[in-house]
UniProtKB/TrEMBL annotation:
<dbReference type="Pfam" id="PF04014">
    <property type="entry name" value="MazE_antitoxin"/>
</dbReference>
<feature type="domain" description="SpoVT-AbrB">
    <location>
        <begin position="4"/>
        <end position="49"/>
    </location>
</feature>
<dbReference type="InterPro" id="IPR007159">
    <property type="entry name" value="SpoVT-AbrB_dom"/>
</dbReference>
<dbReference type="InterPro" id="IPR037914">
    <property type="entry name" value="SpoVT-AbrB_sf"/>
</dbReference>
<protein>
    <recommendedName>
        <fullName>SpoVT-AbrB domain-containing protein</fullName>
    </recommendedName>
</protein>
<dbReference type="GO" id="GO:0003677">
    <property type="term" value="F:DNA binding"/>
</dbReference>
Length: 94
């Protein structure tokens, strides 16, 4: 278990192996909580209110369905231009 030193202004540096394992980057937030065993530090992802829709269960289900359709080749595109896209849509309606 790595030992870290408390520095000026009570700052600590998380060891590189821990930062990599939990994908913690400069500017990320962590939550510090006192427990019976000591201090627990957990990564926290901040979601801006205007982006919260993306993380709803309903939207994530749709994302998963889209990923599966793409993997199965059930989608067409991307297209170089609008003419080709419209042509594919008209063909799909038939």
């Amino acid at each position: 278990m790595p030992i870290v030193k408390v520095r000026e202004n009570f700052q600590i540096t998380l060891p590189a192996a821990i930062r990599k394992r939990f994908k913690i980057a400069v500017g990320d937030y962590v939550e510090a909580e006192g427990t019976r065993e000591g201090i627990m530090i957990k990564p926290v992802k901040i979601i801006r209110p205007e982006e919260a829709w993306f993380y709803t269960e309903e939207w994530q289900k749709g994302e998963q369905e889209a990923d599966e359709a793409i993997a199965k080749g059930e989608v067409v595109g991307p297209f170089e231009n609008i003419k080709d896209a419209l042509k594919a849509l008209k063909k799909a309606r038939v």
